[in-house]
C-alpha cells in the first residue's frame, strides 16, 4: 500500500460545503456553490461503478476506508484505494473530526492549515479592533496579541518582530498612529494591514509589505496631494491628535463590514502570503455600499522607506558597460 493510502485514516466525509452530484455510476460532479471553484467532473475511466457506490455510502454517514471498500478485491480494490487517496489529497474527502473551516481550507486552499500556526497582533481595542480579533479567532488564529493603539510603548514592543502580521484597526482614521505603526513595522521588516472607519467610509488596506510595497508615508503623501484644502486638513489632524480614540463611531453594522474585509485580507495573507489588500486600498461607502479599489504606488524618494528598497543593478558589470567595444582593423 502506498504512503498516500496509509495517510488516509479515521472516518471520512465529503467536505462540508461541497455538493457531490451523481451523474451516473461512473461520473460525479463536484461543486462549491453554483459558480465558485472547485467545479469539476470526476470520472471512473474503468467503468467499474465503484465511484457512485462510495459516494452513496458517504452520503449516508461517515465511512472508514475499510467500509468504503468492503466488497472490493483485486484490481478494483487497488483502483478504489487510489481514488480515495486522490480525493483526500484534493480535499474533497476529509477527516470527519475536522471543523467546517478546516474542511473548507482542505479543498479551497489546497490543504493549507497555517491559520492555527499564524501569529497576529491587533493594534486597537475599540469596536473595530474587537471585531477583527473575534473574526481571526473564529477562523482558527490562536496566537493573537491585542494592544491599545494609545500605548506607544506597547505598539513598539508588540510582536517583537516575530509575528506574521499586524492589523491596525481604529474606529477613527488616525494618521499619527498609523505613522507610528508604519515606522515600527518598517524597522522590524514585518507586514501590517491598515483598517479604519472614517466617518461614513470604511478603509481596508493597504497591506504593507516592506521591500515589496509602498509604505504608509507614500499613501499619506498621495492623499495630501489630492486635498482641496490642506490647511483645514492639518488643523483637523491636530484636533484629532489631542483627543483619545473613540470606542465606536457610527453604526455597529459599519464596523462589522469593515472588520469582515480586514479579517478576510488577514486570513488570505496568512494562508497564501498575498491577498486582495497587498499594496491596494479598498474604500467602502457605508451609506451607499459602493466599493472603490485603488493601487498605492511607491514614491521614488520616500524619506521613510526609500532606504529599504533594493538598488537596481545593471545586468552586466559596470566596467563592461564603460569599456568601448574593440574593433579589429580591416586588412
What can you tell me about this protein's structure?
- The protein has 331 residues and is α/β, with parallel strands linked by helices.
- The protein has 2 domains: 3-108, Outer Surface Protein A, domain 3, CATH 3.90.930.60; 119-305, Rossmann fold (3-Layer(aba) Sandwich), CATH 3.40.50.720.
- It contains 12 helices and 12 strands.
- The chain has helices at residues 3-7, 50-60, 65-68, 74-89, 100-108, 127-138, 152-157, 175-188, 216-225, 230-241, 252-272, 318-322, and strands spanning 12-14, 19-24, 27-32, 36-43, 93-95, 119-123, 143-147, 165-170, 192-198, 201-208, 280-285, 290-295.
- The protein has a 7-stranded mixed beta sheet, sandwiched between helices. A 3-stranded antiparallel beta sheet has the order 2-3-4, with helices on one face. A two-stranded antiparallel ribbon has the order 1-5.
- A hairpin with a 3-residue loop joins strand 3 and strand 4.
- Helix 6 packs across helix 11.
- The longest helix is centred in the last third of the chain and has 21 residues, at 252-272.
- It is elongated, with a radius of gyration of 27 Å.
- It starts with a helix and ends in a 9-residue tail after the last helix.
The largest sheet has its strands arranged as 7-6-8-9-10-11-12
SSE string: HEEEEHHHEHEHEHEHEEHHHEEH
Give the beta-strand count. 12
Q: pLDDT under 50 segments (min length 5)?
A: 1-7
Give the class-level CATH name of the largest domain: Alpha Beta
Total domain units: 2
Structural class label: alpha/beta
CATH topology of the largest domain: Rossmann fold
CATH architectural label of the largest domain: 3-Layer(aba) Sandwich
Q: Share of helix among residues?
A: 25-40%
Measured between the Cα atoms of the first and last residue, the distance is 76 Å
| Overall pLDDT score | 82
Shape by Cα distribution: elongated
User: CATH homologous superfamily of the largest domain, by name?
Assistant: NAD(P)-binding Rossmann-like Domain
Report the radius of gyration as a whole number of Å.
27 Å
Estimated share of beta-strand residues: 15-25%
Helical region count? 12
Q: Biggest β-sheet: count, sense, barrel?
A: 7 strands, mixed
Amino acid at each position: 500500500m502506498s504512503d498516500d493510502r496509509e495517510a488516509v485514516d479515521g472516518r471520512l466525509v465529503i467536505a462540508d460545503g461541497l455538493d457531490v452530484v451523481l451523474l451516473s455510476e461512473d461520473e460525479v460532479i463536484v461543486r462549491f456553490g453554483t459558480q465558485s471553484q472547485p467545479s469539476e467532473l470526476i470520472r471512473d475511466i474503468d467503468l467499474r461503478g465503484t465511484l457512485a457506490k462510495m459516494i452513496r455510502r458517504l452520503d449516508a454517514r461517515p465511512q472508514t476506508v475499510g467500509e468504503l471498500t468492503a466488497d472490493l478485491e483485486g484490481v478494483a480494490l487497488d483502483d478504489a484505494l487510489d481514488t480515495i487517496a486522490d480525493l483526500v489529497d484534493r480535499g474533497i474527502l476529509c477527516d470527519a473530526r475536522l471543523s467546517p473551516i478546516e474542511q473548507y481550507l482542505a479543498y479551497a486552499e489546497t490543504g493549507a492549515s497555517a491559520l492555527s500556526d499564524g501569529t497576529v497582533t491587533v493594534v486597537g481595542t475599540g469596536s473595530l479592533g474587537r471585531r477583527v480579533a473575534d473574526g481571526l479567532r473564529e477562523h482558527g488564529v490562536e496566537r493573537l496579541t491585542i494592544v491599545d493603539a494609545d500605548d506607544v510603548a506597547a505598539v513598539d514592543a508588540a510582536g517583537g518582530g516575530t509575528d506574521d502580521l499586524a492589523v491596525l484597526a481604529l474606529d477613527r482614521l488616525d494618521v499619527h498612529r498609523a505613522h507610528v505603526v508604519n515606522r515600527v513595522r518598517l524597522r522590524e521588516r514585518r507586514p501590517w494591514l491598515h483598517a479604519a472607519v472614517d466617518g461614513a467610509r470604511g478603509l481596508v488596506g493597504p497591506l504593507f509589505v516592506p521591500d515589496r510595497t509602498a509604505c504608509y508615508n507614500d499613501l499619506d503623501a498621495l492623499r495630501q496631494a489630492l486635498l482641496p484644502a490642506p490647511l483645514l486638513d492639518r488643523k483637523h489632524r491636530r484636533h484629532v491628535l489631542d483627543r483619545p480614540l473613540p470606542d465606536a463611531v457610527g453604526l455597529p453594522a459599519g464596523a462589522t463590514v469593515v472588520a469582515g474585509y480586514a479579517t478576510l485580507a488577514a486570513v488570505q495573507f496568512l494562508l497564501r502570503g498575498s491577498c486582495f489588500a497587498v499594496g491596494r486600498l479598498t474604500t467602502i461607502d457605508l451609506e451607499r455600499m459602493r466599493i472603490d479599489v485603488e493601487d498605492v504606488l511607491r514614491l521614488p524618494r520616500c524619506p521613510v522607506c526609500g532606504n529599504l528598497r533594493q538598488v537596481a543593478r545593471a545586468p552586466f558589470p559596470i566596467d563592461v558597460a564603460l569599456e568601448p567595444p574593440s574593433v579589429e582593423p580591416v586588412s
